[in-house]
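Slide 14.
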Amino acid sequence: MDSHVSNKVLQRALLVLRISLGIFLLQWGVEKFVVPSNTTAIWDYFYGLSVPATLGYVFGTAELAIAACLILGAYRTIAYGAAMVLHAVTVVVSWRQLIDPWGGDANHLFVASVPVLGAFVALFLLRTWDRGVFDAKV
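Slide 15: predicted structure.
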């Protein structure tokens, strides 16, 4: 395959990856404003910490900013890295659900967080080949 064609295919694949991951993160950021009680419940259950609802707004704002950067392809190293780390933490704290997806109150949908983490890692590793909306046309 011609390198120009390969580069175009790679850029399109990265566009799809970053927009879909940006929308994924956008949904979690919006939730912190729409249903702020979920944030405190999640922190209590998964992290064992009682946090004020206002902290949810802080995290929601950060998630919305990161999601916007992903969708736009802006500040790739910082934004893609932050998204990857943020999601990695959520995967780690849900280890009980991952080890026993059908046991107790656990939800087998937590398993979907693992390939999403893989997608965040892939996006971060391929960030130098990605082109955002503010990048000059080459």
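Speaker note: DSSP finds six helices and no strands in the chain.
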